[in-house]
């Protein structure tokens, strides 16, 4: 019901939809406060037993009131109604029920509760094993979780941002606001963040005065003062969710969640805040007391009842009872009385509690049970006294919000006088704590601790501390710990979100799960979206009691980020879809697109896979044609993606000689050499060609995939291993557009393009040089991946698009054909060149048939360990070629080789097929693969056994060089 | 985590690639090292709980290799030096 007063704007009425009903609230309401004002008690069903549940808190700690917000693609499950701001047209539905909220079919689970106790999953779903996939998993999946996802792509935008400050104040309650003002007046650059949309913290929920002003008024004036200062950034709707290394804090700002439509703005921004110092002023969270049926709609934390009454002008009931173990519960009774709400009774567990003229007080008593299936009707005290009421405010004491102090594994310490954990001494570097978060539970104390903390920080950072301490008085704050009502017969809830009862905790103890971390995992206490904010301390107090230990001996579970849930969308920011990993485009991309290319992702690049021509039915038609036309005429392929490293310096040759396993010291100027690169453990990890353009200038190519790693390792060798070698490296992969021009007519084509003599005498196989192509400075390399007479020509990347067009034009008279990565792959398999499929991370030079290339006369990376006995065995795997005995058979990569007559098991495994292709020139399928003693088994027929595809193909072992094994074409 | 780059000032750890134990600077000379020595160099790394000297590479930056002395328990960065300077100080040259 609505009360008078409050911080809502009654001039603005907002209509919103709750399940099938349209209701009204006001600007300044949360969804929860509007539901309270509309007397909606039942808002959801509990996770396990589907018990009816109502709103329990007024903040981020809410365990019950989780709803689905919005509709369609923007639907968001498990939103806490207590922090969802009301806006015109808001749509919310309850979750975790089949059928209507009031008549949930799953509530039968409640009757099964004796079987669903702690460790239920671990005990029940163990056997029989065959039930796992077919029965248990579908059942668990169907009942797991609370809300449901829309199944559609998130339509909203999210962004990331970075902020820097001297002091980050976390929380804008009395301590935080005072600290921010003191720090700002002392000249610090301050960021102050609060999860609420209204700064002030508990001041907005209470009836306190500060500096002679009412609390909310003082908070608003202070916030407005801060907003007017150039060195302050006041961030509302912003949750600082984690403390990370080096004073970095994560914060989630909800930019448009309070609007019906985000427009084109980001819905949420994930901030990374770099703070020299941080002051945690996150306040405290109230906790419950466990007693019979303490989970009915209408039961609410006492502080939350005050928040609804004072801030939102709403009462959860007409007749409210209060159950308390401390002075704070009295405040609720007094505030409600002042607002005209009837207090049915105040039950104080302390025998020495005071008296009241305004309401009935039961001293030294406790509530043992409650009645009312879908809303509270009455409570029953231990002595049998029944009190009629429609709401019960529970005051179990306050727990400081120490979470962020523990993100670097700090441990909170127990303070007996306030019956709560407070931050320990092992705080994250640069963090201090003020206000209720530090155990300063009363107003004047909180203001003072905020003010003083800020002054200390200002002095530490070299500023003269300024600012004045706001004046207020301290309220009563005395507590006698009281955790659960032992005489209660009915189930007593500890963790409402996970349906954990006192019995579950005792059972966990009985069954030996006594450490708090075990207790959490065995019973699920403190899991899920609320992470036990209202239940953890209660749970471990009961565990402590069961084990006869003190609370500090029992300890707490570890708090980890995030403090409250952070949407995956916010973590992803703009990095989603194609933007998650943007493609790099080759210089000929635009031209390739114009010419019908299909593209494929290779590493970080998008490359042309083949160029389809009219009439071609499948990719094989295109690829076969590209291979045939290249081998018979001339083909052109963009090979820009290969890594390119420019190496210069007086010691460049010596450096390369230590990087490559084969000799490199004496490569003549104007020559290219193939190089094999090993890791320090002797395994081959990359290969490529390196050209010597001049005495002190080399250009290396790496494989596309390893371009980054090779460069990194070379910098390591240069800076860390041989720091005085005169050599410098720069990555020029993107700097040069490079095209392979391959085929018997490649020389004729290129002779039209470049200004140097390309005759075999003047520019033989493996020659390189600088020249001009169409008048543009270019580099020419006579290297061949295809096995044909071939060249690679490189021009500065900005000429790449012009170059491909000019090359194709020049090639028209030769019927030049562009080819893609697939034809490139076919030709390299025909030629027997190893590629990614062959370099497995275990490949040795001997296996590649390159054992003799490894020079033992020099110290190169990996040489020593490449000579270990196991890596140079004669009976090891060798890379060889394969062709099917039946020429019509198609080979498959991944098939394993078996010697004829051997059984099909791993003990008789002879190796595996690494790469296969259809060779248009040979007219049948061909393969490359590793075979034990392969080099000695030419002509032998072995089985290519492929149980995954159900195939068993007879293949003949042959040279890996399927085509032109003598290499005459490339030298011609 | 922030790494105080000797040339560029405090940089976010996300800009770096970590390689681990800075003992990798002490590569034995392959012409004289025994296979056992080279094996130990390639495979054996210290991974202490506490102060550790590590190699970090500023890949998204100036491509410097750094030796970062770091407490692996608290992630506190105690010292940062250019790996090249460290290598020279350890007697490495050409």
From TrEMBL, chain A:
One of its GO terms (biological process) is tetrahydrofolate metabolic process. It comes from the Bacteria. Residues 878-962 form the Aminomethyltransferase C-terminal domain. Keywords: Oxidoreductase. Residues 589-858 form the GCVT N-terminal domain. GO terms for molecular function: sarcosine oxidase activity. Residues 490-574 form the SoxA A3 domain. PANTHER family: AMINOMETHYLTRANSFERASE (PTHR43757), AMINOMETHYLTRANSFERASE, MITOCHONDRIAL (PTHR43757:SF2). Belongs to the GcvT family. This is Sarcosine oxidase subunit alpha.
Automatic annotation (TrEMBL), chain B:
It comes from the Bacteria. It comes from Pseudaestuariivita atlantica. GO terms for biological process: tetrahydrofolate metabolic process. It holds the Pfam family SoxD. Gene3D superfamilies: Folate-binding superfamily (3.30.2270.10). This is Sarcosine oxidase subunit delta. GO terms for molecular function: sarcosine oxidase activity.
């Amino acid at each position: 019901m609505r009360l008078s007063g409050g911080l809502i704007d009654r001039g603005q009425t907002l209509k919103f939809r709750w399940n099938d009903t349209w209701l009204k609230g006001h600007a300044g309401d949360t969804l929860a406060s509007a539901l309270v004002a509309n007397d909606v008690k039942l808002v959801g069903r509990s996770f396990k037993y589907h018990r009816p549940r109502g709103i329990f808190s007024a903040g981020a700690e809410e365990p019950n009131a989780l709803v689905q917000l919005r509709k369609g693609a923007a639907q968001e499950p498990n939103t806490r109604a207590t922090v969802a701001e009301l806006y015109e047209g808001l749509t919310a539905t309850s979750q975790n029920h089949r059928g209507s909220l009031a008549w949930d079919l799953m509530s039968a689970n409640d009757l099964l509760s004796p079987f669903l106790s702690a460790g239920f999953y671990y005990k029940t779903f163990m056997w029989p094993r065959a039930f796992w996939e077919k029965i248990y998993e579908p059942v668990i999946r169907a009942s797991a979780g609370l809300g449901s996802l829309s199944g559609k792509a998130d339509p909203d935008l999210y962004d990331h941002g970075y902020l820097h400050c001297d002091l980050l104040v976390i929380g804008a309650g009395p301590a935080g606001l005072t600290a921010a003002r003191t720090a700002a007046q002392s000249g610090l650059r301050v960021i102050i963040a609060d999860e609420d949309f209204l700064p002030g913290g508990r001041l907005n929920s209470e009836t306190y005065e500060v500096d002679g002003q009412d609390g909310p008024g003082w908070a608003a004036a202070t916030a407005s003062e801060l907003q007017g200062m150039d060195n302050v950034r006041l961030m509302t709707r912003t949750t600082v969710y984690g403390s990370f290394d080096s004073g970095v804090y994560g914060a989630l700002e909800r930019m448009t969640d309070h609007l019906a439509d985000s427009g084109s703005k980001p819905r949420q921004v994930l901030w990374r805040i770099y703070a020299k110092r941080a002051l945690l002023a996150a306040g405290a969270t109230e906790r419950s007391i466990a007693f019979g049926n303490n989970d009915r709609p209408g039961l609410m934390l006492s502080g939350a009842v005050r928040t609804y009454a004072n801030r939102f002008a709403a009462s959860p009931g007409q007749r409210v009872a209060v159950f308390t173990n401390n002075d704070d519960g009295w405040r609720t009774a007094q505030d409600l009385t002042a607002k005209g709400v009837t207090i049915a009774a105040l039950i104080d567990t302390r025998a020495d509690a005071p008296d009241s003229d305004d309401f009935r007080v039961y001293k030294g008593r406790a509530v043992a049970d409650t009645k009312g299936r879908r809303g509270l009707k009455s409570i029953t005290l231990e002595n049998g006294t029944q009190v009629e009421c429609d709401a019960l405010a529970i005051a179990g004491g306050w727990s400081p919000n120490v979470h962020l102090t523990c993100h670097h594994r700090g441990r909170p310490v127990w303070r007996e006088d306030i019956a709560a954990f407070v931050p320990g001494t092992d705080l994250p570097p640069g963090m201090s704590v003020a206000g209720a978060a530090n155990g300063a539970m009363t107003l004047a104390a909180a203001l003072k601790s905020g003010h003083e903390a800020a002054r200390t920080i200002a002095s530490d950072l070299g500023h003269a501390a300024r600012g004045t301490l706001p004046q207020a008085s301290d309220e009563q704050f005395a507590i006698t710990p009281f955790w659960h009502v032992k005489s209660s017969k009915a189930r007593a809830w500890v963790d409402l979100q996970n349906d954990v009862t006192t019995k579950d905790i005792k059972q966990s103890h009985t069954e030996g799960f006594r450490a708090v971390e075990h207790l959490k995992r065995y019973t699920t206490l403190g899991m899920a979206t609320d992470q036990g904010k209202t239940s953890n301390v209660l749970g471990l107090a009961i565990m402590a009691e069961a084990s006869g230990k003190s609370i500090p001996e029992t300890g707490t579970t570890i708090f980890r980020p995030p403090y409250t849930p952070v949407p995956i969308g916010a973590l992803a920011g703009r990095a989603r879809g194609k933007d998650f990993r943007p493609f790099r485009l080759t210089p000929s991309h635009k031209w390739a697109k114009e010419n019908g290319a299909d593209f494929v992702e290779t590493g970080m690049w998008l490359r042309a896979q083949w160029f389809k021509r009219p009439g071609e039915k499948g990719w094989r038609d295109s690829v076969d044609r590209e291979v045939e036309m290249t081998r018979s005429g001339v083909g052109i392929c963009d090979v820009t993606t290969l890594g390119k490293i420019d190496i210069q310096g007086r010691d460049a040759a010596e450096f390369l000689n230590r990087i490559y396993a084969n000799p490199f010291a004496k490569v003549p100027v104007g020559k290219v050499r193939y190089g094999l690169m090993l890791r320090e453990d002797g395994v081959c990890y990359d290969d490529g060609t390196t050209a010597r353009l001049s005495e002190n200038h080399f250009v290396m190519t790496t494989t596309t995939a390893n371009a980054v790693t090779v460069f990194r390792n070379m910098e390591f060798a240069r800076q860390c291993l041989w720091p005085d070698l005169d050599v410098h490296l720069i990555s020029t992969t993107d700097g040069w557009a490079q095209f392979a021009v391959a085929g018997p007519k490649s020389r004729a084509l290129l002779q039209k393009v470049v200004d140097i003599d390309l005759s075999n005498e003047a520019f033989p196989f493996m020659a390189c040089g600088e020249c001009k192509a169409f008048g543009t400075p270019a580099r020419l390399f006579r290297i061949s991946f295809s096995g044909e007479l071939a060249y690679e020509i490189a021009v500065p990347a900005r000429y790449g698009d012009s170059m491909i067009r000019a090359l194709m034009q020049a090639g028209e008279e030769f019927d030049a054909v562009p080819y893609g990565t697939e034809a490139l792959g076919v030709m390299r398999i025909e030629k027997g060149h190893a590629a990614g499929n062959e370099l497995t991370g275990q490949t040795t030079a001997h296996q590649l048939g390159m054992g003799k290339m490894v020079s033992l006369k020099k110290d190169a990376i990996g040489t020593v360990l490449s000579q270990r006995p196991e890596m140079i065995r004669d009976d090891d795997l060798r890379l060889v070629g394969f062709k099917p005995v039946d020429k019509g058979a198609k080979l498959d990569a991944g098939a394993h080789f078996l010697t004829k007559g051997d059984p099909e098991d791993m003990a008789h495994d002879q190796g595996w097929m690494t790469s296969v292709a259809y060779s248009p020139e040979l007219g049948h399928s061909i393969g490359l693969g590793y075979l034990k003693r392969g080099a000695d088994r030419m002509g032998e027929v072995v089985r290519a056994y492929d149980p995954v595809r159900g195939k068993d193909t007879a293949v003949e072992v042959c040279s890996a060089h399927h085509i032109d094994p003598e290499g005459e074409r490339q030298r011609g | 985590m922030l790494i105080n780059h000797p040339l560029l000032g405090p940089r976010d750890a996300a800009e770096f690639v970590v390689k681990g134990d800075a003992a990798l600077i002490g590569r034995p000379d392959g012409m004289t090292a025994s296979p056992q020595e080279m094996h130990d160099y390639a495979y054996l790394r210290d991974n202490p709980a506490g102060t550790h000297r590590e190699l970090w590479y500023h890949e998204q930056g100036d491509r410097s290799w750094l030796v970062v002395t770091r407490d692996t328990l608290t992630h506190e960065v105690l010292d940062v030096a250019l790996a090249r300077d460290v290598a020279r100080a350890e007697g490495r040259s050409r």
